[in-house]
Design goal:
Layout: E1 9-14, E2 21-22, E3 30-33, E4 40-46, E5 50-57, E6 63-68, E7 77-84, E8 87-95, E9 101-103, E10 110-116, E11 121-128, E12 148-156, E13 164-172, E14 181-188, E15 201-203, E16 218-224, E17 230-231, E18 236-240, E19 248-256, E20 268-275, E21 281-282, E22 284-290, E23 297-298, E24 305-311, H1 313-323, E25 328-336, E26 341-350, E27 353-354, E28 359-361, E29 372-380, E30 385-392, E31 401-402, E32 413-419, E33 426-431, H2 433-439, E34 444-445, E35 456-458, H3 467-473, H4 478-488, E36 493-498, E37 511-512, E38 528-529, E39 540-541, E40 543-546, E41 553-556
Parallel strand pairs: 1-6, 18-21, 20-41, 22-33
Antiparallel strand pairs: 2-3, 3-4, 4-5, 5-11, 6-7, 7-8, 8-9, 10-11, 12-15, 12-19, 13-17, 13-18, 13-20, 14-16, 14-19, 20-39, 22-32, 23-31, 24-30, 25-29, 25-32, 26-27, 26-28, 26-30, 29-38, 33-36, 34-35, 36-37, 40-41
Amino acid sequence: MLPAKYRSVLVFFGTFWFYASFSHGSGFRHSTILDPHGKYHLKWRFDRRTITFEIEVETRGYVGFGLSPNGAMALSDIVIGGVTDGRPYLQDYFADAKRKVQRDVQQNYRLEYGRENNTHTVLAFSRDLLTCDTNDKDITVPVPYKDTTYWCQMFKIQKVQQKHHVTRIEPLIQRGHENLVHHILLYQCDSNLNESELDASHECYHPNMPDSFLTCETIVFAWAIGGEGFTYPPHVGLSIGTAIDPVYVLMEVHYDNPALQQGVVDSSGLRLFYTPELRQYDAGVIETGVWVSLYHMLPPGMQEYVSEGHCTRECLQESLGQEMPSGVRVFAVLMHAHLAGRAIRTRHFREQEELQPLSHDEEFDFNFQEFQLLKEERLLLPGDNLITECKYTTKGRQNMTWGGLTTRDEMCLSYLLYYPRVNLARCESLPEINGQLKFIGVKEIQVPVTTWPFMIKSPKKYSNLSFTEAMDKYRWSKKRGKSFNEMVLQLPINVRCSRWGQEEWSIQGTLVSPPEVKSEVKPPSMVCRSASEPHSGGVLLFTLCLTYSVVQACFSL
């Protein structure tokens, strides 16, 4: 047992995700409350090597804080401190298997400051994430115990004195985790972020994630499960080092964990090769297809269901017309869907006439998705339009399949690599929702809209249901599903046409009719050049690794 003088306040907890809420004050990015009465407050921040805690406890006695495998005292890593005669102190302890507390010979916790008033004691202390002390608990956290996790980490591109080109990007997937890491996206962030934002990591798309993550809108590179390394063509490179190039980047790693594996620590990421020997053109990426949303929905029990995501002529006319009237050249495409996907193609139209598809895969394999170099580069002109067409099967599913982030949700996307780079990040669409609701008999929704998904008001059979619940309640059949599909493909579409960062082209948010297609061109046999050949020659390599943070991820340059 702990000596009596140490029994004032002692809290233990198991190894946990190091985030609970986003703290905007005092330099601590995360905070939580450790007791049910709200008397023990914990804040923390960390970088790649160290972690700093601040505890504020309603007591004037001694304060203890422990890390253990299961929240119990046995085999725990303990720190005990307080304030005596106005002077703070701190000691590093541990408990053995019999719960006997002993002072650690290797004192790895460092006192930062301490104070007390008439009601509370505050202590701040730090330590290395890995101390190489067998009595300390390593602060590394496994992939979360849940089905789907999107984990984000902020990095700063290594400063170079002149413009360089990235010529090759390789995935670094930890051995044995090939089925766990579903995709990795790299985004360009606001170049004016504070240096304190560096090494910030958090669950993506979470209400408590750092505000700086919201500035990371422009996709720099995309890798998906089964893909290998990508080598840019000899006349094209990804630019770094100029005023409009990435300074800060956000790496998003999608972990797919349907088996709910526990205790898995991952260190996957990307490696980028760069050189001062410049190519002729700067590369860019455009995300096209269906805007990821619940408004993208697939009925259950369908042998085949078709979704279309439009990169509209209105968006390309405005963006390319101002940025590059002579057009851009697409040289590689990555087509992306989830588990229900069976076939994808990226169709190309000019003046209502269909050209040969940019890319197509009639035997889409969820476990093999990578950029494919086109046999011949394709000119994309202002006023052209693209349709990313995805075919799905939902046989065996009892409920609707929704557009969303998990692998059991769906996506329908094409990532286009092109040159020269222009200020266009996303060119997508989404079918208008009212027509979809009308199909199942919805007459009125509740206004004002205060919840998401929004609620149905009438008819009575759907009253007080969310629109997703109403869609699931509808009695779907193959015939009804087919009719719904035919109707959705004719609905007006909501245009997404965004620039880099959080800016938009003026056409964004407007409703337009889907284009009329005069004739459909049958895809030829797919002929692509490999983009995964290793790079050779005089290139440089530098590494930024999130070695010991929340879901470990490595980003290498």
